[in-house]
Design brief:
Largest sheet: 2 strands, antiparallel
Bound molecules: zinc ion
Helix content: 40-55%
Order of helices and strands: EEHH
Radius of gyration: 17 Å
Number of helices: 2
């Protein structure tokens, strides 16, 4: 990573376009339809609010739409835990950026 100069934090959230610290994450949802299943993913750089929003909507999606089908029954838990990992690593990235910010004056 290149060293950005002081105050050169031009990071924006991919979802709400807010400027500030962002964490990258990739959330996955399984939609089981008994005989078929669909996967939906959303990846990008998200601010803290959008990180949580995406996490919850994908978690609920997995729990409600996910486990319907033989294959889906096994895929859904994998996505479920992968999303938790993504949330945590995104949060870590956010925290690092907040720590790197120059103190307000
Ligand atoms: Zn956002």
């Amino acid at each position: 990573m290149t060293n950005l100069g002081e105050g050169e934090m031009h990071r924006t959230c991919d979802q709400c376009q807010a400027v500030g610290p962002v964490g990258s994450a990739k959330f996955m949802m399984n939609i089981g339809l008994l005989v078929a299943h669909f996967e939906q993913t959303r990846s990008g750089q998200f601010c803290s609010g959008c990180l949580w929003k995406n996490f919850w909507s994908y978690t609920f999606g997995n729990l409600i739409l996910g486990p319907w089908g033989v294959k889906s029954f096994f895929i859904m838990p994998m996505f479920f835990f992968a999303n938790i990992t993504e949330l945590l690593s995104g949060r870590q990235m956010l925290k690092r950026q907040i720590a790197e910010l120059p103190p307000p004056r």
